[in-house]
Amino acid sequence: EGLRGETLIDVGCGPTIYQLLSACQSFQEITALDYTDQNRQELEKWLRKEEGAFDWRPVVEYVCELEGKREKWAEREEMVRRKVKRVLKCDVTKANPTEPISLPPADCVLSTLCLEAACRDLATFRSALRNLATLAKPGGHLVLLTVLKETYYAFNNQVFSCLRLEKEEVEGAVEAAGFDVRFTQVQPYPPGDERVDCEAVMGLVAQKRLSNRV
Questions:
Q1: Residues with Cβ < 8 Å from 25, sequence gap 6 or more?
Q2: Domains, the chain
């Protein structure tokens, strides 16, 4: 709450829109970035209302209900479609994640459940955050959602590796990338889910420094 601006870049958007349902009310233009062609194609299918696109209505209704606006779900879907201006390939391990395209720095960079899956070790994670920092304006914000102490996650009978992170490691990497952490929240993950072994979900908001001071 309180984060607003003209432009937002969603890094590692996946084939999903849930992370944009609230953000679209605070930013005028959204650029969605993802590494895999399949994810970008699935998102574009929904944006164009193509046959066979995933039905996000239950999720949109739920988010709108949390905001006291359940009956506004259709308007919220259209707002997301209107504000997502481009869907591009990205690689967070590159100095310019959208190479060969160079994006103007944004007011806010959002990344949800991406870096811990894309980075094999802490050094790569720290480097990826420095790369993400180039996408944000000085004084702009980073909104990060990650998982703590997770080593794997499973989907559709496939198991994927995940970088095990501690809260202090995430905060330290964000600070080292040129941001000042403004807000952190850690919520325990319910036990008993065999699909993952994470212990908690961490949300973080940070502001990019106006200078290069570390």
A1: 79
A2: 5-208 (3.40.50.150)
Q: Which helix (H) or strand (E) holds 7?
A: strand 5-11
Q: Record the tokens describing residue 87, joined without a space.
A: 């869907």
* Each residue's pLDDT tens digit, 104-158: 999 999 999 999 999 999 999 999 999 999 999 999 999 999 999 999 999 888 9
d(CA 175, CA 173): 5
Distance CA 63, CA 47 (A): 18
Q: Which of 170, 145, 160 is nearest to 196 (CA)?
A: 160
pTM: 0.94
Q: In sequence order, what E strands does 46-178 have?
A: 84-89, 106-112, 136-148, 152-155, 158-161
